[in-house]
Design brief:
Number of helices: 5
Order of helices and strands: HHHHH
Number of strands: 0
Distance between the termini: 107 Å
Strand content: under 5%
Helix content: over 70%
Structural class: mainly alpha
């Protein structure tokens, strides 16, 4: 928008109506780009459509003033074009800048809220991951300890039993309430002791 206003000033300061044509083409290209930007914003700016619509209306009004200035310059009416530029163009530009400032402020506020929300969600996810990791590690340690104990205690009993047999004590018995491979080993050792 600032570049268009610079070009409009150049239009007003041109010496001949023919000098207006290349400037008019530049303004037309920039206007098309600005309309495209407004279309993009309209499609994705659902939070404050009234402010966006107001800015677009103000821009279209400024655009019509600029077109009037160009038309006046092409007709050789430089003084009237200057008056339009200074009076209506300046006022319209000022109102448009205020509207755009409101939009930018609103957009900045929305961006800050989005970032704050994302940071909060990130912190919650990090806390959840840390708590889950601690719970999983604790459960793993508990299970490892329980499984190790359930295997080592019967093995120690088997070792004590076999040491007693190797020292000649055949009167000892092994208590066995399990039903697994270690239990089968203890039962076989007890049978061996009973047969000797």
């Amino acid at each position: 928008i600032g570049r268009i206003q610079q070009l409009i000033k150049e239009v007003v300061l041109t010496a001949t109506p023919e000098d207006v044509v290349p400037l008019e083409k530049q303004i037309s290209v920039i206007n098309a780009s600005i309309h495209s930007d407004f279309a993009f914003l309209t499609a994705g700016f659902n939070e404050d459509p009234h402010s966006l619509a107001s800015a677009l209306i103000l821009y279209k009004k400024l655009e019509s003033i600029n077109l009037k200035i160009i038309k006046l310059m092409k007709a050789g009416e430089a003084n009237e074009a200057w008056d339009w530029s200074e009076d209506k163009g300046t006022k319209s530009l000022s109102r448009l800048r205020k509207a755009m400032s409101i939009l930018v402020g609103f957009s900045n506020d929305q961006a800050k809220e989005f970032i704050a929300s994302a940071e909060q969600q990130s912190q919650q996810a990090t806390s959840t991951i840390i708590i889950s990791t601690i719970l999983i590690l604790s459960t793993g340690i508990f299970l490892a300890f329980t499984i190790t104990r359930s295997i080592i205690a019967p093995l120690k009993s088997a070792l004590v039993f076999s040491n007693n047999i190797s020292h000649g004590d055949l009167t000892q018995t092994v208590e066995n309430q399990r039903n697994d491979e270690i239990s089968q080993l203890l039962n076989s050792m007890q049978n061996m002791s009973n047969r000797i």
